[in-house]
Amino acid sequence: MKTITILLVSLLFSVGLARADGGLVTLPSQFSFEETVNRFVAAVEGAELKVFSKIDHSAGAQKVGQSLRPTLLIIFGSPKVGTALMTSDQRAGIDLPMKALVWVDDQAKVWLGYNNPDRLFDRFAINDREKVRKKVTGALQKFASKATQP
Question: Which residues span the domain enclosing 137?
Fold first, then answer.
C-alpha cells in the first residue's frame, strides 16, 4: 500500500496534476462540479469517515444578492483520528475536522483543494503521531484522486 501511495503521489506531481500553494493541495478535476463533489463524498464515506457538513458558498452569496461560481466546502473526518491528534496538542482542534473545497474557476475548470496535513502537524509540532500523519496524508490523496480522476 505504501508503495502504491508513493507512486501515486509521484505521478500526480510529476505530470503537474497537483500543486501545493501555501499548504493548499490543488487538483484539477476531470469531472463536473457536482460529480467531483459526489465522488469525494463517496470516497470519504467509503472509508467510513463522516461528512459533518457541506457549506455552499455560492448559495450564501446568492442570499446576500451577490454571485459566486460554484464553491462548496466539505467538512469531514474521524473522531478517532481527530482525538488522537488533539491528545498530542488540543489546539489542533482549530484545524479539525478536515476540509476540502470544490470550485469552478473563471475558465469553467473544476478544482478540488485541501490543506496539506503536514501544515497541521507542523503548526502544532505533533511529532508523536507519524503513523497518523502518513494515514491522513494517504487518505486525502486517495480521496482527491478518486474525486478528480477516472
Answer: 24-148
Residues paired with 103 in a beta bridge: 71, 111
pLDDT band at 3 (very low <50, low <70, confident <90, very high): very low
Q: What is the CATH number of the domain that holds 83?
A: 3.30.310.70
pTM, 2 dp: 0.85
Domain count, the chain: 1
Task: Report d(CA 48, CA 42) in Å as an integer.
Answer: 10
Tens digits of per-residue pLDDT, 76-110? Answer: 999 999 999 999 999 999 999 999 999 999 999 99
Q: Is residue 17 part of a domain?
A: no
Positive or negative torsion for Cα 31, 36, 38, 40 = positive
Rounded distance between C-alpha atoms, residue 47 and residue 16, angstroms = 27
Sequence-ordered alpha helix ranges (H) in 15-78: 33-46, 57-63
Q: How high is the mean pLDDT of the chain?
A: 90
